Amino acid sequence: MGRVSGKVVIITGGARGMGASHARKLVNEGAKVVITDILDQEGQALANELGENALFIKHDVTNAADWEHVVTETEATFGPVNVLVNNAGIAPTSPIESTSEEVYRKVIDINQVAVFLGMKVVLPSMRKTNNGSIVNISSLSGLIGGKDQVGYVASKFAVRGMTKVAALEFAEYGIRVNSIHPGFIETPMIRQENTEELTKMFEKIIPLGRIARPEEVSNLVLFLASDESSYSTGAEFVIDGGLYAQ
């Protein structure tokens, strides 16, 4: 038996990077996983790879009607939702002075408003299970500041706070809500923003001496999705190789 056998999971931003890693891990551990993303070709290819226990739905996470559609299709295909992993996110970089209002609002919509919508819309379905888990992917930047990341830092601090509010409100329904705070992870987002030289610089300042593999974050997602974390809610789980400890 897998660690999440029979659980129905929604993962946003699941077509590639950390989201795809989470989907593979949870399917391998027995879950039925709905992968959502705007990247429809990559998302469908991943669902095809994972087989009958995976479904891809194209999904704009900033759109409430899209969220309703995802939950309806999930219930119709697999049943009520046990686990939501709010993973979708973007991380453009620029100083405050040169950050446009349009870019700032886009980051807030995708990284913060989408998490609110996901938790709100999934709640009626998850209440049916009396054993739900919401995993909100924040960031190390949701705990500390960072230059040239005003929208990203603001949104990830917000996710941290929203997680605590939801944990208090949803506890009566047996639903746990926690946030994960990754540091530097080997994903397409990191590679497109940073050169190999910058990656080596990151490795020099990380106490464990390397950036993380997506699978290492997926192991934490699996723990929080499973009943092994049954008494953890409203908590922050940092996975950063020791950066925050410095």
Automatic annotation (TrEMBL):
Domain Ketoreductase: 7-173
Any single Pfam family the record assigns to this protein: adh_short_C2
Example GO biological process: bile acid metabolic process
Keywords associated with the record: NAD, Oxidoreductase
GO molecular function per UniProt: oxidoreductase activity
SMART domains on file: PKS_KR
Similarity field: Belongs to the short-chain dehydrogenases/reductases (SDR) family.
The protein's name in its UniProt record: 3alpha(Or 20beta)-hydroxysteroid dehydrogenase
